[in-house]
Sequence to fold (276 residues):
Amino acid sequence: MGVQDGQYFVVDAFTSQPFSGNPAAVMLLDHWRADDWLQDVAAEFNLSETVYLVPSCHDNNENDAPVIDFHIRWFTPATEVDLCGHATLAAGKVLASLGRLPDASSVHVSSLSGVLEIARDGDAIGLDLPADPPIRSDPPAGMLSALGIDQAEVWRGKYDYLLVVDNEQIVREIRPDFRKLASLNSRGFIVTSIAEADGIDFVSRFFGPAAGIDEDPVTGSAHCCLGEYWAQQFGRDRLVGHQVSRRGGIVKVERGDGRVRLTGAAVIVSHGQWVG
Fold:
């Protein structure tokens, strides 16, 4: 099935229930538009992420590299970002619905974060993403007070600060000062702890006001960092995370050799045709 230029879908990712998980807009294009147009459309959708897919010509399969099926870019309402997990999962759900991702198959997409694999196993979509192992860090001035946290173990990933707190209640009760957080030099701030519920290993929340997202409901790219940290703590590579935002979502995490596989469900809630 061919891509219809300007066709779009709104997808709730990391959930099997509408109106939960993290919504993303997925737009299919037959060629790239100007960056200003891509950003304006993302601002119009006003979701945490809008993802664009353009088919590849399959002319870049050298040295046994994977065939690139699509090129992908992600935009918040304010800026382009290098990686977005939940929007990539949403894109996988759309490709599956269009017959471009049959069960037990995968596609490869090229992005600012390299070549990524999107795979399907029944209703589950799996993402093969670059790992983001955090390193211990001193907290920047004002970060803990902006989050309303007295103390935390602070780490730094490629994109975000990771703050490990004592218990799940602290994670759930955080009420950040978003203006102060936006003034700090970081895409976002992940706050996490061990989970209390059976079957869940860790909980988290993600705040990214500098990127135009005060609180992201479920953040795939943050789990590339969370998975690395908690795999070390638990001494195993397969984990289940629960991002405890108001909408919430479940992310299955499997750590590999420099990669992290995230798996979750998604549901399409609307679709249409862009006319602008």
In short: The longest helix spans residues 220-234. The radius of gyration is 18 Å. The chain has two domains: 7-130+263-273, 135-255.
